[in-house]
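Following up on my earlier message about heme C. Here are the inputs again, as you asked, copied directly from the submission form:
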Amino acid sequence: MKMLIKVATLSALLVASSLNGAEATKIVDINAQASDATRITKEDLGNKKVVTELALGLRKTDLYEESNETTGDKADYSRPAPGASTRFERAFVNAPPMIPHSVEGLLPITTANNQCVGCHMPAVAPSMKATPIPTSHFTNYRPTTVMDGEKVLKEGKEMGPGNTSDVLVAKAQKSEKLNNSRFNCSQCHAPQSKAGTAVANTFQGDFGDGKGKSGSSLADVMNEGVE
Ligand code: HEC
Ligand code: HEC
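Thanks, got it. Here's what our run produced:
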């Protein structure tokens, strides 16, 4: 029953969510297999009378023997080129989206070479069919910090001795320029390896109206719950 509902919501989402209203955006549910209800029940140790050492560990081979079968999953990051890939569903509301396309030749990002911005800056993104870099990345959320003699002032407020973090959320300063703290894209956005999950995933993000599965709006809700 639960599964049916999930499938129904996902297909509704595929129809409802679209980048420019013209075509429906397809997204890949990265938890489809890991969050399978049958798998979760099977792996739930709470419903078992006896829990063996084997069941406790992530590896499912003899714990007292290093046999050839005891090898980790091989990482495989091969993906279609930018423009030919399918986006991944976000892990939770306002989670940084995983990079769905190949990053071959794009990494590492250096001060002199950041190809990500070449396709993702809002001015060029629509023509590349790429998701534009969001407003939050053009906003400085860091408190203005200055030294006044021996005193440390954050947002004009003097910090107590040894305490430099006791400051409310800084005034957001929007800019036309990409904020420096967002320059190193791969610090937060990572490619996804094709690998099975070692354990089932019982986490379910609360997506509210479901839109957050394929887009984000952190800048709009940054101060939600902050007084
Ligand atoms: C040649 C243009 C191009 C370059 C370069 C590029 N991208 Fe992309 N990116 C795209 C396109 C187009 C998509 C949409 C998916 C697709 O069609 O492959 C995308 C999708 C994404 C997404 C998913 C967004 C979402 O809505 O889920 C992320 C994250 C991303 N790219 C990050 C990066 C990062 C980080 C780099 C640099 C390492 C980069 N991209 C370089 C074109 C590009
Ligand atoms: C400090 C972490 C961090 C860095 C660095 C960072 N991002 Fe993000 N990014 C996020 C988070 C968190 C979100 C989701 C919340 C939001 O919208 O701000 C996001 C969202 C996005 C989205 C989806 C926007 C949407 O409308 O759904 C794109 C595209 C993106 N980032 C591209 C980039 C690119 C390209 C870079 C490098 C120039 C970059 N990001 C650097 C954390 C980061």
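One observation from looking it over: Confidence is low (pLDDT under 50) at residues 1-23. Hope that helps, and feel free to reply on this thread.
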